[in-house]
Specification:
Layout (H helix, E strand, L loop, with lengths): L1 H12 L1 H4 L6 H4 L6 E2 L2 H7 L3 E11 L4 E8 L4 E6 L2 E10 L3 E5 L10 E9 L2 E5 L17 E5 L12
Antiparallel strand pairs: 1-7, 2-3, 2-9, 3-4, 4-5, 5-6, 6-7, 7-8, 8-9
């Protein structure tokens, strides 16, 4: 019974997920090709690497768009956003989500942040639950954060800031 209730609440609270008739991101996006990143791919590309990127919206607490996060092989992270630094934990959930939590750090909030990530060329685009449907993001342009792997030579489109 608990399982059914969770699905009903999730669908009721997320209209985009409740309506699979909405067009998929592939149908709406331009000629750019976006590929979903799987849990196995995260586990291969992130350990031992640092991502550097930007948020779509300026972070009110630091007045910056930029962030970086080093992903260690033991599942821990070192996050930096302006003057804020934090030790965190990263893990995959299901087939396509990456999640982060930062225990005992009031700057990062008490919750867990999970994202679906799509790659376009050398740039990775993260989407939260409000930016997803059952068929992916309705608009690839509505990412929450985007990033490249430091030292890879990768780039994203023109910066927000």
């Amino acid at each position: 019974m608990r399982f059914r209730f969770s699905i009903v609440v999730l669908l009721a609270c997320t209209p985009a997920l409740a309506n699979p008739a909405l067009a998929s991101a592939e149908e709406i996006s331009s000629d750019k090709k976006y590929s979903p990143i799987t849990a196995k791919q995260f586990q291969k590309i992130l350990p031992g690497n640092t991502i550097t990127g930007e948020y779509r919206q300026m972070r009110e607490r630091t007045k910056t768009y930029n962030f970086s996060e080093s992903h260690h092989k033991d599942g821990t992270t070192d996050y930096a956003e302006g003057p804020i630094t934090s030790k965190g934990i990263w893990y995959t959930l299901g087939e396509q989500k990456i999640c982060y939590k930062y225990p005992n750090d009031e700057n990062m909030g008490a919750g867990i942040s999970c994202f679906w990530v799509y790659k376009q060329d050398t740039c990775y685009y993260g989407y939260g639950i409000s930016g997803m449907t059952l068929n992916g993001p309705p608009r690839f342009e509505d990412w929450v954060a985007r990033w490249v792997i430091k030292g890879s030579g990768g780039t994203c489109d023109a910066p927000v800031s």
